[in-house]
Amino acid sequence: MGYRERPAPTSLRGLIETTWTLDGPGDAARVLPDGCMDLITMGGRIMIAGPDTRAHISHREAESFAGLRFRPGVLPRLLGVPASEFTDQRVPLDSLCAVTSARLEVVVADLLSRPTRTQTSPWALPAVHHVTSRLAGGAAVRDVARELGWSARTLQRQSLAVYGYGPATLRRILRFRRAVALLRAGQSTTTVAAVAGYADESHLHREAREFSGVPLRALTYDSAANRSTEVPSGSSTVA
Prior knowledge:
alpha+beta
């Protein structure tokens, strides 16, 4: 009962971080921004979730939810729609395309069979994973762009289609994701601020409030399904 994760199928681990389920008594879950997008079965439909820039409160009755959490920048290229169209939104998949199955793995196979579109996949997947990993590690936007032979302006413009927000925002969200994971692992706020790359504890507290809508201490005890903090921290989990 409750929130549980399983590894993604081996063949899809370059695209999907994890599969997850949520069941038990109905409740409200605070879903924190994490740079990812999900496909979720809920209310008899498959929904597209995120990417979020702030906490999303998901209200659930006694029904079970199941989801696939895609790595940052991956799902929009399968959908053929820029990520910015889904920022802070929950959109039924059948509003974009025909859905022939309620099974998420079948839906993913169908999406993978479709040709990608340049406007929603301007970068090859290795480049997407490189950008995500480097920004998760706190690299400067101009340095990441230079490593791939791009201008900072190109990275900024195309990030909106790939991630749903610019690279500086993505870097902040990935830093916050890591900070909450460290906090829930039992680290002190002083250690979390230093390890995650914040200027000081006050900086950490301000960003926690901005992204979560609650004080940092509340995140330690929030056991609801929260896709940004139920996975290990570090760039290897988001790239």
